[in-house]
Design a protein that fits this description.
Largest sheet of chain B: 7 strands, mixed
Distance between the termini of chain B: 37 Å
Number of strands of chain A: 11
Number of helices of chain B: 0
Order of helices and strands of chain B: EEEEEEEEEEE
Shape of chain A: globular
Oligomer: heterodimer
Distance between the termini of chain A: 38 Å
Structural class of chain B: mainly beta
Helix content of chain B: under 10%
């Protein structure tokens, strides 16, 4: 049962344009969401997070939007740079103090120079 | 400020052998998590530990897998009698004391790639 879904396995975007990565979840108890970036042969690196009390969080070129009614979040990267090419994972955590993260299957982003 | 350290980075074991994976959390972090990533999949939670305590092992296979985080030394994930299906990347993460009012991130190590032949 995949509670966090990233339906696009891959995405290609021109350098300088906006990259939009999407994530859907089914567990209504999730109240904290995170995006991680992963390069090959490395561990995931934390990018940005959002609590369910917000609908937007921004950090430099990265913005995460949360639509609780649709159980959907998205990560916007603008402008996209070649170093952004990586696999991006969406993750979620629930409100009962369960500290484990539930991850999506990832989206491979390729930035075309 | 060293990050999460894992060793070995690569481990090859024959079927039936034991695999021991080590994780040293970031300085000041007292919570350790283990995740497994199978090829072409996302990370799957295995176990959450604090010093000398297993808090949540709901993701651990019932047999052959065990984890500990002793008072002194690194956290250890132990796989006995490995099988080919255990081949995966095993990631450790650490966090400071979780708080619902503070941003909550887990910081990951580089992973151990286990290959069972």
């Amino acid at each position: 049962d995949q509670q966090v879904k990233q339906n696009s396995p891959s995405l290609s975007v021109q350098e300088g344009r906006i990259s939009i990565l999407n994530c859907d979840y089914t567990n209504s108890m999730f109240d904290y969401f995170l995006w991680y970036k992963k390069y090959p042969a490395e561990g995931p690196t934390f990018l940005i997070s959002i609590s369910s009390i917000k609908d937007k969080n921004e950090d430099g070129r990265f913005t995460v939007f949360l639509n609780k009614s649709a159980k959907h979040l998205s990560l916007h990267i603008v402008p996209s740079q070649p170093g952004d090419s990586a696999v991006y994972f969406c993750a979620a955590n629930d409100s009962f103090g369960n500290e484990k993260l539930t991850f999506g299957t990832g989206t491979r982003l390729t930035i075309i120079p | 400020n060293a990050g999460v350290m894992q060793n070995p980075r690569h481990l090859v074991r024959r079927r039936g052998q034991e695999a021991r994976l080590r994780c040293s959390p970031m300085k000041g972090h007292s919570h350790v998590y283990w995740y497994r990533q199978l090829p072409e999949e996302g990370l799957k939670f295995m176990v959450y530990l604090q010093k000398e305590n297993i808090i949540d092992e709901s993701g651990m296979p019932k047999e052959r897998f065990s984890a500990e985080f002793p008072k002194e030394g690194p956290s250890i994930l132990r796989i006995q009698q490995v099988v080919r299906g255990d081949s995966a990347a095993y990631f450790c993460a650490s966090s400071p004391l979780p708080g619902r009012t503070s941003s909550y991130e887990q910081y990951f190590g580089p992973g151990t790639r286990l290959t069972v032949t």
